[in-house]
């Protein structure tokens, strides 16, 4: 049986609980991500996709249910424990790259590793290896502003993987790119995920990209349904 890397069990989330404007956005979300599995998350706007990704990535706590990464139930644990797990086990990618503008592409990938105690030479070596996998190692010494949108997003993928997380959580990772660039950048993302054995949950509105992943889950009325 495939190793389960991330498991969400009965996850519920309210906003403004008990108030007249209460929103019960997640109503019992169950999801298992196996090692190496790439799952597309599709949802109408406002359905709770970002809320779900934040809870899965331990940035927010569920009101009920559990989030487990690598078999450890982390929801309800101490802040320190969840922060550690978030830093080590989860890589985030957003629609916008959020790279640090004053640092080069390579530094943006090396810095999170150095913050985790990796030496500069080793961090840069890993950074270059990741950049080569997505075809932007020739831009290693450029700052983000000097890169194209597609290149910026490829660097952001590498940064998300810098500390070798177990899971990548991506929120519309190609949503800010034109269709042709989006396809190429998505190819790079797939290559990176496949090449590292990472598991990934990728929110997208693009049904063609969703269909290329191993499985599609749809967030509807606060629960996940297949396809
Ligand atoms: N802090 C908050 N307080 C109150 N309501 C919130 C809050 N954050 C989100 N919501 C509501 O919860 C619902 C889900 O929001 P969320 O941002 O998770 O949706 P989404 O599916 O990511 O949307 P989109 O695709 O448009 O970004 C929305 O109705 C939103 O208005």
From TrEMBL:
Keyword list, A-Z: ATP-binding, Cell inner membrane, Cell membrane, Lipoprotein, Membrane, Nucleotide-binding, Transport
Entry-linked Pfam families: ABC_tran (PF00005)
Organism domain of life: Bacteria
One annotated Gene Ontology cellular component of this protein: plasma membrane
GO MF annotation: an example: transmembrane transporter activity
Gene Ontology process terms (BP): lipoprotein localization to outer membrane; protein localization to outer membrane
Domain ABC transporter as annotated: residue spans: 6-227
SUPFAM superfamilies linked: P-loop containing nucleoside triphosphate hydrolases (SSF52540)
PANTHER family: IMPORT ATP-BINDING PROTEIN, LIPOPROTEIN-RELEASING SYSTEM ATP-BINDING PROTEIN LOLD
Protein family membership: Belongs to the ABC transporter superfamily. Macrolide exporter (TC 3.A.1.122) family.
Identification of the protein by name: Lipoprotein-releasing system ATP-binding protein
Source taxonomy: Bacteria, Pseudomonadati, Pseudomonadota, Alphaproteobacteria, Rhodobacterales
């Amino acid at each position: 049986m495939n190793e389960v890397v991330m498991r969400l069990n009965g996850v519920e989330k309210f906003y403004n609980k008990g108030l007249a404007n209460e929103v019960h956005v997640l109503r019992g979300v169950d999801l298992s991500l196996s090692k190496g599995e790439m799952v597309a998350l599709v949802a109408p706007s406002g359905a709770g996709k970002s809320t779900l990704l934040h809870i899965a990535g331990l940035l927010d706590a569920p009101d009920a249910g559990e989030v487990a990464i690598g078999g450890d139930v982390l929801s309800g644990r101490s802040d320190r424990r969840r922060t550690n797990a978030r830093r080590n086990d989860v890589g985030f990618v957003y629609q916008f790259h959020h790279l640090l503008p004053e640092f080069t592409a390579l530094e943006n990938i090396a810095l999170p590793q150095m913050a985790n105690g990796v030496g500069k030479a080793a961090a840069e070596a890993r950074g270059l290896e990741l950049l080569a996998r997505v075809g932007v190692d020739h831009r290693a010494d450029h700052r983000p502003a000097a890169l194209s949108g597609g290149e910026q997003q490829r660097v952001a993928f590498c940064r998300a993987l810098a500390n070798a997380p177990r899971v990548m959580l991506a929120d519309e990772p190609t949503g800010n790119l034109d269709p042709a660039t989006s396809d190429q950048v998505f190819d790079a993302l797939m290559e990176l995920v496949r090449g590292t054995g990472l598991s990934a949950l990728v929110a997208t509105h693009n049904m063609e990209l969703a269909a290329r992943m191993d499985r599609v889950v749809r967030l509807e009325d606060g629960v996940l349904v297949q396809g």
